[in-house]
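Table S2 (text version). Query chain:
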Amino acid sequence: MCDVKIRPFWPRNDIELQCEMDSAEHETHQGTVRNYAYPGSVTVITWLTGDRRSFLGEWKPCYNKGCVLPAWHHGNHAF
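Corresponding structure-token output:
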């Protein structure tokens, strides 16, 4: 299973998705959020490896004060 994770709605909430794809060798990741839009809903989230919100392991926030991205993200900070 793929170990890439994302918090697609952070900092609004802390829903954390792990990629549900079987292989670890892919650039497009996919996870499912259930009951978010309304009870019984199923929302499939797709993101790329290069997304600044992607991370591995335990969630740690960026060390730049106010940045909403995970620690060690690439690219610019987001506030």
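Notes on Table S2: The chain has one domain: 1-79. DSSP finds no helices and five strands in the chain.
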